[in-house]
Amino acid sequence: MKKIDIACIIDDDPIFVFGTKKIMKLANFCNSFMVFHNGEEALDKLKPIIESNGTALPDVILLDLNMPIMDGWEFLDEFIKIPSQKEITIYIVTSSIDPHDIERAKDYDKISNYLIKPISSEKLHQIVSSGS
């Protein structure tokens, strides 16, 4: 299995973050993690790295939709405005099974897939094998 360098988790649920990091380690999914607890925190940290063409950008972002301060949709709307040299693959990983959310995700070219929590090692293998 190909290994991802940096995986980014944007989610306010500490249990989900803990479990996902554990599964990623067991699956040998990535070399390192970035974890942000809401969209605003993620933007504040990622935007300067992108604008400076930094090398510490994630290859994959696992994005929750329902978070305080700035939710996943608000994050996406701001994130896609930032020009980047690097292609970052974004997966929505949420507990929302709302058909409206699933359809809305299709409006974003940057979203590779819409995954329902919990994440599994099988889903991680699919992410890596899909060319992320």
Question: What are the SSEs and their pairings?
Answer:
Blueprint: E1 4-10, H1 14-26, E2 30-36, H2 39-51, E3 60-63, H3 72-79, E4 89-94, H4 99-105, E5 111-116, H5 121-129
Parallel strand pairs: 1-2, 1-3, 3-4, 4-5
Helix pairs in contact: 2-3
Main structural class: alpha/beta
Q: Which segments are poorly predicted (pLDDT under 50) over 5 or more consecutive residues? A: none
Query: Helix tally?
Result: 5
Taking the sheet with the most strands, its summary is: 5 strands, parallel
Q: Using only CA atoms, what is the Rg? A: 14 Å
Task: Write structural notes for this entry.
This protein has a single domain (about 5-130), classed as Response regulator (Rossmann fold, 3-Layer(aba) Sandwich). The chain is globular. Strands 2-1-3-4-5 form a five-stranded parallel beta sheet. α4 (about 100-105) links the parallel β4 and β5. The chain is of the alpha/beta class and about 130 residues long. The chain is built from five helices and five strands, in the order βαβαβαβαβα. The mean pLDDT is about 90.
Supply the key terms.
single chain, 132 residues, alpha/beta, Rossmann fold, five-stranded parallel β-sheet, 38% helix, globular
